[in-house]
Structures are given as C-alpha cells and as structure tokens.
Write a structure and sequence with these properties.
This protein has 328 residues and is mainly α. The protein folds into two domains: 214 residues, Rossmann fold; 81 residues, Tyrosyl-Transfer RNA Synthetase (Orthogonal Bundle), CATH 1.10.240.10. The protein is built from 14 helices and five strands. The strands form two sheets. Strands 1-2-3 form a three-stranded parallel sheet.
Length: 328
C-alpha cells in the first residue's frame, strides 16, 4: 500500500453475527475507505472487556463470526490491515503511558461514560477499565498516527479526547502525534422489524448472514401502518417500518410505492413482497461469500495474524518515538 495515503483507523467490539444496521452504520463505510486510505480495522476485544469482564468467554467466540462478516461484506486484507487488538500489546503500553498524564476529569466528562452507565444500570461498571475506555481508544488511534477516525456522531467526543491527549503529550515532551480529525459518517438508520431500534437484545434484527430464503419470513413480521385495516384502505407510509426499509434498499421505486400506499392501490403484503426481493438481492452476495469462507476456517486466523504482524511493526515504531521523547 502507498505510504503517502492518509491513515484511517476504526474498530468494532466483537459481538458475534452482525446485522444490516452494523453494515450501514460502519462496515459499508469501511469497505469504501479501504480503496483510498491506509486503513487499520481492529477487533476491539479489550474494549469488550470493559463491560463484559464477568463473562469473557463469549468475547472469544464472537471474534470469528464478526471477522467472517467483515470479509464477506467486502473488507480486503490485501487492502486494509485487519487485526485483533489484544494481539498488538503496544496498544496497552501506550495506554499505560498516557494514563500517567491524563486528568481523570477528562474521562469523567465524556458523555458516553454517563450514557452507558444509564443504559446498563444495575451492572457494576464503576471500574478503572470502564472509566479509561476513551483513553484506550486514544492509544488505539494514536499508535498508528491516524489522520482521521470515521465515527458516528455519538463517538465524536472520544476523538476529541484523543486530540487533547495528543496535544498534551506533544507539549510535555516533543511533537510525536498528529491530532486526528473526526470523520463523521452519516448513514441511514433502519429500525428493527418491530419498529424499535435494531438490536440483538430485542431479537428484532436481520443478520448479514441471513439465509435469503429466511428474509421474507422476517419481512412478513414487520410492523406496518396500524390504522390500515383493510387491503384497500389508504395507508400512511411515514408510520410504516416497511416504508423505512424501502427508503434505504429500494429508492428507485420509493415514490411509486408511497403513492400507491396512500391511494390504497398496493396492500401491505404486496409491499412486503417487494421489500423481500430487494433485501434478498442485497444480502445474497454477502451470504454466498460467507458460505465460501466458512469452508476455510484457518483463513480467518491467517488474516488476523497477518494483520497483527503489520500492525505491530507500525505500533512498535511509534512506541520507539514515544520512549525516546519521554526519555525512557
């Protein structure tokens, strides 16, 4: 890969099989970025421990499924560096060194810290690891001297903390780190089949690895306009989950579907059948690629090991600069 290209970095916590919301929210963007940037994409297994430390066995089992989805969706180990965070110990060393000069107040004011505490109320998350989550992210980013980090708006404060850490290090010692830009990624939000947020905890999602034959069954379960009782009743697309999916996966026919729905010319069953066809066509190449890769189980580990070797070289070079700057 050309060394003159800008560096992009992003990671994902291993949570097993990915759904189409994960694809639209991050993975699709990653696939596009690898064409034009030097990309590092990592399995954030240490980050997963910050909330799942009581049952770490699930993390290991989820890694292979997630990476399989990555590769099936188009991530290319010949174009991007794909690795497991815990295979590059340099992340942990830089995290430790950063912790020596990072004010606790910087971490406590991070909005994500408070939001996750509220979302996971009842779990013991008042731990050093959970509080330090944004600082570990800073180490993940800065150890590769990333020029930019593609994130959703909710993760932007973490990149700002990273910039503050880089500035503080450069001021205390000598300039080593760039201040990475926040590359906001706007993406279409699709709800779960029940109209709520698509989430594994709600069991309302459509997997990237979904058998195309099973997709129609999930589409049939989608919530439509509750005010539409009979087939010929005028419908309201704005309150229909199926319509939201058409906006993303069937934009070419959207205006016609909206008009036919409002006039009662198309029923909910026919509308769902149209969506099923589009979703099946969208997922089929990902599904077929996944089936092919499942026949080569050793390949996933080869991809991660190859990526880790490349990542360690880059991370080691940065740590040499850090130790020299700090006089260690």
């Amino acid at each position: 890969m050309m060394t003159t290209r800008q560096v992009m970095l992003s990671g994902m916590r291993p949570s097993g099989l990915l759904h189409i919301g994960n694809y639209l929210g991050a993975l699709q963007n990653w696939v596009d970025l690898q064409q034009d940037y030097r990309c590092y994409f990592f399995v954030a297994d240490w980050h997963a421990l910050t909330t799942d430390y009581e049952d770490p066995g699930n993390i290991k089992g989820s890694i292979g499924e997630m990476v399989l989805d990555w590769l099936s969706a188009g991530l290319d180990p010949d174009q991007a560096t794909i690795f497991r965070q815990s295979d590059v110990k340099e992340h942990a060393e830089l995290y430790l060194l950063f912790s020596m000069f990072t004010p606790i107040a910087w971490l406590e004011r991070c909005p994500t810290f408070k939001e996750v505490l509220r979302e996971l109320e009842g779990r013991e998350l008042h731990t050093h690891g959970f509080l330090g989550y944004p600082l570990l992210q800073a180490a993940d980013i800065l150890i590769y001297k990333a020029d930019a980090v593609p994130v959703g708006e909710d993760q932007a404060p973490h990149v700002e903390i990273t910039r503050e850490v880089a500035r503080r290090f450069n001021h205390l010692y000598r300039p080593v780190f760039p201040e990475p830009e926040t590359r906001l990624h706007s993406f279409p939000l699709v709800p779960g089949i029940d109209g709520r947020k698509m989430s594994k905890s709600y069991d309302n999602y459509i997997r990237l690895s979904e058998d195309p034959a099973e997709i129609s069954a999930k589409v049939r379960m989608m919530i439509t306009d509750p005010g539409r009782i009979r087939r010929n009743d005028p419908g309201n697309p704005e309150v229909c989950t199926v319509h939201t999916f058409h906006q993303v996966f069937n934009p070419d026919e959207l205006s016609q579907i909206e008009e036919s729905c409002r006039s009662g010319e198309i029923g909910c069953v026919d509308c769902k059948n149209k969506l099923s066809e589009k979703l099946e066509a969208f997922i089929r190449p990902i599904y077929e690629k996944r089936q092919e890769l499942m026949g080569w189980p050793a390949y996933l580990e080869e991809v991660l090991e190859h990526g880790a070797r490349h990542a360690r070289r880059a991370a080691g070079a940065t740590l040499d600069e850090v130790r020299e700057a700090m006089g260690l």
